[in-house]
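This is your field. Please look over both lines of this record.
***
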Amino acid sequence: MNKVILMGRLTRDPEVRYSQGERAMAIARYTLAVDRRGRRGGNDDGTQTADFIPCVAFDRAGEFAERYFRQGIKIVVTGRIQTGSYTNRDGQKVYTTEVIVEDQEFAESKNASSGAGNADSGYRPAERPTPSSAIGDGFMNIPDGVEDEGLPFN
């Protein structure tokens, strides 16, 4: 079985490209900084270390990453590890390892990620509609013209 579950922060905004052809597909690439537990090399100074793990999200997951993910936010990713290799321009063989994303979601609220003493994280919360149209049961009506596909909780 090849299954990976990661929780970490984006090191920068996702890089998104679209495939060519009849049906263009989003391909989002981003790197997660995942804290390691324990201490490395016998360090007793308490400094945290992290692994920087490249992730690739395709199609709707790639579009979601492009729309909602920003540098510094904490997310949870599930997927599978994929390895590969290619020969670079200098004729050297380069080996690659990346996580192919099957599912991704936020690991904290927008307020937590922007208020965590991370003022320069690059993350800016999107504008939210005011709940003036809230019904008596506490739920807000979705305004006309908003597509369900654009909502982050599908």
User: Anything to note?
Assistant: The helical segments are 59-68, 110-114.
